[in-house]
């Protein structure tokens, strides 16, 4: 029976290893713009507000602006954003930020104009000068200037990970997966979520969902991603202060592609897997799922890892009946708890008729090879009709909830349908 142990999961995330450790079935485990977690969380940073010279067309004529950070502020986090108290009806027109003795810092305004976000973490122990120009409803301009100093590098940080890699192609159900160790306290999640930026091209709405005591957060759309989508992510946590005295460790970035649609659906009632390529049924495969004492999980999961050959070793299972060491071909991980799609020549005689596995999806060697050659990380599989449901966080379970349930896991309000392309 699959156990949700997740051994090695956080380590894999923190080192961004391209491969996750297997231990056994049923016992496992143009520059882009950015769109924030929701359109109401001020999480979007448009290209249109790149640094420019304030007052280029006319000198400021209105009252001086009050900036944040305030002038002569010290020990500011390197995640500091620039904001201004504006005259009624005014809006920021330009922002510049420069380090002492250095050039201008690149950055972008959030979509709602609430703050200007540097495109990379500021340097520790460095003095900066910010200049903001705003234009009022009557056309007059106002300007404010502030000089501040960032803090020294903190000694206590959280570890973080991003399960997305540059220039890789993923399946249509690949969520943006972030991990944190230790987990993010609940009262800090809104502030952290505001620093997690996602942009999709073509634009598609989306939302964040926190699971597993704050150690994971997923970003997905209401439906599977459109084939051909480009996903650009910045998890901008370097220097973000938390209530437990820790700070975010580093910024993580990735730009990846969504490939063709490849969807697997398994019905326990028929013991069959239906495979759809680009929406068309391409193959029906007999399966054997988990027996009643070790049932497979119902729900939507995604392929997390692929091993052409490996060894399942479950000798640490507390139930002697579930202990074994077996060589496995064409293994595709679905959960941290140890559920896989894999070749099971020993059960081919009952595949399509009865369930005998320890929780995995058993298929013939020929079908396992065919699937293995077709699938990508992030391809979805939906299993229905088994004795238990997939546990939240036991794998990349972003799609195991309906959209209405998924958005309840956001630390910030999510507009109906999800945050749109906020740039």
Automatic annotation (TrEMBL):
GO-annotated biological processes: cell wall organization; peptidoglycan-protein cross-linking; regulation of cell shape
Pathway: Cell wall biogenesis; peptidoglycan biosynthesis
Alphabetical keyword list: Acyltransferase, Cell shape, Cell wall biogenesis/degradation, Peptidoglycan synthesis, Signal, Transferase
Segments for region (Disordered): 32-85
Domain of life: Bacteria
Pfam families with a match to the protein in the record: Big_10, YkuD
Active site location: 342, 360
GO cellular component, one term: extracellular region
Low complexity bias: start-end ranges: 48-70
Entries under InterPro entries matching the protein: Big_10, LD-transpeptidase, LD_TPept_cat_dom, Transpep_catalytic_dom
Record bears the keyword Cell wall biogenesis/degradation: yes
Secretion signal span: 1-23
Designated name of the protein: ErfK/YbiS/YcfS/YnhG family protein
UniProt lineage: Bacteria, Bacillati, Actinomycetota, Actinomycetes, Micromonosporales
